[in-house]
Design goal:
By secondary structure, this protein is α/β, with parallel strands linked by helices. The chain folds into 2 domains: 45-156 and 196-361, Rossmann fold; 384-550, IlvD/EDD C-terminal domain-like (Glucose Oxidase, domain 1), CATH 3.50.30. It contains 22 helices and 14 strands. The protein has helices at residues 12-15, 21-32, 38-41, 64-77, 101-116, 131-142, 168-178, 184-192, 206-216, 232-251, 255-258, 261-274, 280-291, 297-304, 321-327, 329-339, 356-360, 404-410, 429-436, 473-477, 537-549, 561-569; strands at 47-52, 81-86, 121-126, 146-150, 157-159, 162-164, 384-387, 394-398, 419-427, 448-452, 485-487, 500-504, 521-525, 530-533. Bound molecules: FE2/S2 (inorganic) cluster and magnesium ion. InterPro entries: Dihydro-acid_dehy_C, DiOHA_6PGluconate_deHydtase_CS, ILV_EDD_C, ILV_EDD_N, IlvD/EDD_N, Sugar_Degrad_Dehydratases. This is Dihydroxy-acid dehydratase.
């Protein structure tokens, strides 16, 4: 540990600047007015921020309001002073038109707070989908000592003796409602059963994914991701997180020391092993860009594709968050990967000052039904494919959720076992899809591919989670529950659909999807990782010229000032959907 020299603290420039007593007095007096003393603020103790993402607007993270009390006690006990402040709330299931719009807004706000106030280190209260990347991205840009604290998943949902997973059960319940198996009240009860307590989604959706990856990146204390929100261990690790951040300030252990290229490579492997969300590449690529670490979707395929799925959680498997924790959580997953020598960089540093390997090497897998050994996985090659072609430069496919039904129908040609071809049905966004999916004139059958466009970061501001589309009701009644879905939007991490999504560039940014017409033949080859409209280059160029002459791909009006501002400066999904000008700002606390 380096010497505890208070003169190194950046908060000294506000609260104890011998060269400028006038400004020091101004900075300090207002923080006394609720009871802090001048002696405390000038005692040379680090000022630790708690970046509070919980509020009544964001129920997934609301329990952080309680947990912050234990964080404070840890900070005080370790010799720090705590300033808790709000982060722009992001509730995945509450924000219109989409919570994804707010990730970069929360990022921008948090960067300003961490840079502009006397904060020496920060506890990032992560949880609901976008809160985790927003916090990590801001910590990356500012680069002051930072540690993440997950709010933890909800308790398991139960309905009539069966586990009901948040987010995931909605898809099944909608199908049951559509098929007339349940009524409206039954539908509501079934969906609500999946959310029995405070915390974030108890499935392996984007929240559990991103919280697990924050731990795999080294940004949380070991075991911090999986502890359910209401368990005593959750409040205990909140306290330990408060203790630890104070030492991290004295050690000057910064996000750039932890979130290295090696850490991201570890996280990609862990993402495959847990069956992580297709939102993970967007968010991790974004965090990496703000750190200046090179990372792209080719890395995700190269490092992650061959890794087996070993966590048996919904939507790919059976279990939920409590089971994941009881089995040992992220350390047990990494322990299994290490036994099989599949963790690429065990030496990567974590926030507790030890390496990821040292933290996880002896972690016990306490329930092999939930966390399988690598030798007995749920799915063998469970990572993402990165598809390319004349439709887009990059689109992600999560192969681990491809159902047997889907494989049998679309991938069963013995001459060509990895490819499928079909007639394109093109929808202009989710409203158009809902409007026309049951239109008999489209003649949708099981040889069609459903496309949705205008749903990327620009087309549907922030990008919509809409690519996983249900087949028409007539096909569902015939037992066809999944069709190939392709689009420039995202899909919920809680969906089990084998979609091809996050297509970049999106139609609204000049991507080939804009040129597709209903009736075109499209060929997807999963071995070659290609996706192409089967028309000539000349025809494509002619369509491109026609689209340009017609004024380009139409996007809906901006509804808020932020939608307009963000659309002007946002990058594509494969580039992390970051605000392009923000990437140039690195390590700004040092400036
Ligand atoms: Fe918040 Fe799923 S909706 S974590
Ligand atoms: Mg989501």
């Amino acid at each position: 540990m380096t010497a505890r020299d208070p003169n190194r603290l950046r908060s000294r420039a506000w609260f104890d600047n011998p060269d400028d007593p006038g400004m020091t007095a101004l900075y300090i007096e207002r923080y006394l007015n609720y009871g802090l003393t001048r002696e405390e603020l000038q005692s040379g103790k680090p000022i630790i921020g708690i970046a509070q993402t919980g509020s009544d607007l964001s129920p997934c993270n609301r329990h952080h309001i309680e947990l912050a009390k234990r964080v404070r006690e840890g900070i005080r006990e370790a010799g720090g002073i705590c300033f808790e402040f709000p982060v722009h709330p992001i509730q995945e299931t509450g924000k219109r038109p989409t919570a994804s719009l707010d990730r970069n807004l929360a990022y921008l706000g948090l960067v300003e707070l961490l840079y502009g106030y006397p904060i020496d280190g920060v506890v990032l209260t992560i949880g609901c989908d976008k809160t985790t990347p927003a916090c990590l991205m801001a910590a990356a840009t500012v680069n002051i000592p930072a540690i993440a604290l997950s709010v933890g998943p909800m308790l398991n949902g139960w309905h009539r003796g069966e586990r009901t997973g948040s987010g995931t059960i909605v898809w099944k319940a909608r199908e049951m409602l559509a098929a007339g198996e349940i009524d409206y009240a039954g539908f509501m009860d079934l969906v609500a059963s999946s959310a029995p307590s405070v915390g974030y989604c108890n499935t392996m959706g984007t929240a559990t994914t991103m919280n697990s990856l924050a731990e795999a990146l080294g940004m949380q204390l070991p075991g911090g991701a999986a502890i359910p929100a209401t368990y005593r261990e959750r409040a205990q690790i909140a306290y330990q997180t408060g203790l630890r951040i104070v030492d991290m300030v004295w050690e000057d252990l910064k996000p750039s020391d932890v979130m290295t290229r090696e850490a991201f490579e570890n996280a990609i492997v862990v993402n495959s092993a847990i069956g992580g969300s297709t939102n993970a590449p967007i968010h991790l690529n974004a965090v990496a860009r703000h750190l200046g670490v090179p990372l792209d979707n080719d890395d995700w395929q190269r490092l992650g594709q061959d890794v087996p799925l070993i966590v048996n959680m919904q939507p790919a498997g059976e279990y939920l968050g409590e089971d994941y924790h009881h089995a040992g959580g992220v350390p047990a997953v990494i322990g299994e990967l290490m036994k099989a020598e599949r963790l690429p960089h065990p030496q990567a540093l974590t926030v507790n000052g030890k390496s990821l390997g040292d933290n996880c090497r002896t972690a016990e897998n306490l329930d092999t039904r939930v966390i399988r050994p690598v030798s007995d996985p749920l799915v063998d090659k469970a990572g993402f494919l990165n598809l390319k072609g004349n439709l887009f430069d990059s689109a992600i496919m999560k192969t681990s959720v491809i159902s047997k039904e889907f494989r049998d129908r679309y991938l069963s040609n013995p001459d060509d076992p990895d490819a499928f071809e079909g007639r394109a049905i093109v929808f202009e966004g989710p409203e158009d899809y809902h409007h026309r999916i049951d239109d008999p004139e489209l003649e949708i059958d099981e040889n069609c591919l459903l496309f949705i466009r205008g749903t990327g970061p620009i087309g549907y501001p922030g990008g919509a989670e809409v690519v996983n589309m249900q087949p028409p009701a007539a096909l569902i009644k015939r037992g066809i529950h999944a069709m190939p879905c392709i689009g420039d939007g995202r899909q919920s991490g809680t969906s089990g659909s084998a979609s091809i999504l996050n297509a970049s560039p999106e139609a609204a940014a000049g991507g080939g999807l804009a040129l597709l017409k209903t009736g075109d033949r499209v060929r997807i080859d999963l071995r070659a990782c290609t996706a192409n409209i089967l028309i000539s280059d000349e025809e494509l160029e002619q369509r491109r010229a026609e689209l340009a002459a017609a004024g380009g791909f139409a996007i809906p009006d901006h509804q808020t000032p932020w939608q307009e501002i963000q659309r002007g400066i946002i990058d594509q999904f494969d580039k992390g959907m970051v605000l392009k000008p923000a990437v140039a700002y690195r390590d700004i606390a040092a400036s």
